[in-house]
């Protein structure tokens, strides 16, 4: 992973971590359930955006390199990795 993307991911993860801690404080203080749900949905959206950035970077670097490779096994490996990730989503 390129360093400029790495720092972006770290910053996003720190933001998500802070958000999760905020929700924990809300639970501790018996916050209204709908408010909790709104906050957990925001966390899920942030995680989905993080996944999207990671996937895009992977496609631009590792997958592109493997697809251009003369090694058939390397091309198959990266395709299978992607398929496994998406199979777990469904």
UniProtKB/TrEMBL annotation:
<protein>
    <recommendedName>
        <fullName>Transcriptional regulator</fullName>
    </recommendedName>
</protein>
<dbReference type="GO" id="GO:0003677">
    <property type="term" value="F:DNA binding"/>
</dbReference>
<dbReference type="GO" id="GO:0045892">
    <property type="term" value="P:negative regulation of DNA-templated transcription"/>
</dbReference>
<dbReference type="Pfam" id="PF02583">
    <property type="entry name" value="Trns_repr_metal"/>
</dbReference>
<dbReference type="GO" id="GO:0046872">
    <property type="term" value="F:metal ion binding"/>
</dbReference>
<dbReference type="InterPro" id="IPR003735">
    <property type="entry name" value="Metal_Tscrpt_repr"/>
</dbReference>
<dbReference type="InterPro" id="IPR038390">
    <property type="entry name" value="Metal_Tscrpt_repr_sf"/>
</dbReference>
């Amino acid at each position: 992973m390129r360093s400029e993307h790495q720092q972006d991911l770290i910053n996003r993860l720190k933001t998500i971590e802070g958000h999760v801690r905020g929700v924990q404080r809300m639970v501790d203080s018996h916050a209204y359930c709908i408010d909790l749900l709104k906050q957990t949905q925001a966390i899920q959206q942030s995680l989905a955006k993080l996944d999207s950035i990671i996937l895009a970077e992977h496609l631009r670097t590792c997958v592109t390199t493997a697809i251009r490779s003369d090694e058939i096994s390397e091309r198959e490996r990266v395709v299978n990795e992607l398929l496994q990730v998406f199979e777990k989503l469904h």
